Amino acid sequence: MLKDEKTLIVTAGSLLMLLIILIGALVNRGCRKHEAAEEALAPVVPPVVVIAEDPKHPARPIPPRFKRDTHMPNGGEGDTSGSINLGSFSAGRDLVFIDDDRVWWESDNDKDDDECDHSMHFSMETPFRRLIQLVTDRGGKLKVQDSFRVTGVHSSNSLHKEGRGLDVTCDELGLEMLARLCWAAGFDWVYYEASSRGGAHVHCSVKR
Ligand SMILES: [Zn+2]
């Protein structure tokens, strides 16, 4: 064999090897791309939260309207949810701690306050968990502005002092829709509070 022929064969062999390596790399890259695409397409599984049934707070149909500065039912809060009675209230016995990543909690974001918005009366739990689901299903993020609160902004006979009052807002859905969903969630008394002083919100309360 001539020297030139040998060189030609070696060069051709090298080129072939290079081609094989290149094809291998491309196929591999394609596979990884495909895997990444499959990962991106994989459905995000929402957390499964089992909402305990509460016969005293059944779910209701969503009302067609909920005007600002009105409440449901028509009667006053004391007549419906029962007035405050701190003598019969025990924080250790009556309050539950609720956490849920789908909710924005005011007390987690305002470090100057001393209250804990995760604490609320156990009678709140089923309607509250239902409300989270109703709001999340519609693409909103529920904001808890206030729940159990002993001191501060509320009046002396406020049900917040027993953890039976809850103030919520939702930027995405607006307050009228939120008030409608609060009623559907089963709270005993729902008030779309839009005072001229600002700080509009939906206040909900439950019977003891
Ligand atoms: Zn309130």
Written description of the protein model:
This protein has two domains: 1-42; 71-205, Muramoyl-pentapeptide Carboxypeptidase, domain 2 (2-Layer Sandwich). 37% of the residues lie in helices and 15% in strands. The chain has helices at 3-41, 77-81, 91-94, 106-109, 125-137, 175-185; strands at 71-72, 95-97, 103-105, 119-121, 142-146, 165-169, 189-193, 201-205. The strands form two sheets. Strands 1-7-8-6-5-3 form a six-stranded mixed β-sheet. Strand 7 and strand 8 (201-205) form a beta hairpin. The longest helix has 39 residues, at 3-41. The protein is elongated, with a radius of gyration of 30 Å. The site of zinc ion has 5 residues, from strand 6. Residues 146, 160, 165, 167, 203 line the site of zinc ion (ZN).
Q: Tags for this entry?
A:
single chain, 208 residues, alpha+beta, Muramoyl-pentapeptide Carboxypeptidase, domain 2, 6-stranded mixed sheet, two-stranded antiparallel ribbon, 8 strands, elongated, binds zinc ion
How many domain units? 2
Structural class: alpha+beta
DSSP strand count: 8
Ligand catalogue: zinc ion
Strand numbers in spatial order across the main sheet? 1-7-8-6-5-3
Q: What is the CATH topology descriptor of the largest domain?
A: Muramoyl-pentapeptide Carboxypeptidase, domain 2
The averaged pLDDT comes out at: 85
Helix content bin: 25-40%
- For the termini, the CA-CA separation is 102 Å
Low confidence ranges: none
**Which word captures the global form?**
elongated
**Count of DSSP-assigned helices:** 6
How would you sum up the major sheet? 6 strands, mixed
Radius of gyration, Cα only, in angstroms?
30 Å
CATH architecture call of the largest domain: 2-Layer Sandwich
The percentage of residues in β strands lies in 5-15%
